[in-house]
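In response to reviewer comment 3 from the previous cycle, which asked for concrete evidence that the modeling workflow produces usable outputs, we include below a single protein chain processed end to end. The sequence was submitted unchanged, and the resulting structure tokens are shown without manual editing.
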Amino acid sequence: MELTDIKTIKYLAQRFNFSFKKGFGQNFLTDSSILDCIVSAAEIADGVLEIGPGFGVLTNALAQTKKKVIAVEVDERLKEVLEFTLEGYDNVKVIFSDILKIDLQKLLNDEFGSGEISIAANLPYYISTPIITKLLELRLPVKNMVFMLQREVAERIAAKSGRESGAISMFCQYFCEPKIIKIIPASSFYPAPKVESALLQLKMLDEPRVRVVDENMLFRVIRASFSQRRKTLANGLASGLSMDKNDISELLEEAGFSRTIRGEKLELEDFARISDSISGKIKGESKK
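The workflow returned the following structure tokens.
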């Protein structure tokens, strides 16, 4: 059974009385060549965690590598469908749970032990950023992640600076090397979404890309810098960090930046310098 065939998808939906829910972002891949790209980009060593298997299209491709596959699916209506489409694979286990609520550290330890793990997913557009943020915040023992995302989101994550960049760009680049593998048209899915998609690879770094005095301060600086994009960096930081604007402006100049610069003009290394300057000032004031 060719799971990327629209006729098959419609047959499965009819057989199991399944209706697609926009709330779950259920758009199933209909281009089998893209499956090869995903599996290749995942660079699976010992096993893979899949998020949102849907009808099991990608799950089948991952299972054919003979590696262990753990798939986490939030929609329990898919239980019978997945039992049918994954029948015969003894290296696949499906867990019905919300990926944002499940204890991922325990799950990976229980299922893979000290193995080298990859993550693969066709993520719902509406919740892709929270999922990626959680995966990175947990500092999971994962070597590589590959996601199917809305093109705009993927391009934002991969952007070094500029209007396309945002807090998620800097956060991801702190932990990994983002790379857009392929742009995928809406016609490659059923039902077809209203936007293009992109295949994004996040290769985890052995160490964070930059070293800072206070990592939490770096993340606070990044969030504050992009929270009010129309404002200058000084205004954004003053508001987001509850600091005096003049003090922030002086720190920016000391770090080599204009008082009127905006956050979108900076790269991760720039935010690290600013973060360390602010950390230094706070530490100095605490000693007085």
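The first strand starts at residue 28 and ends at 29. We consider this sufficient to address the reviewer's concern, and the full set will be provided in the supplementary archive.
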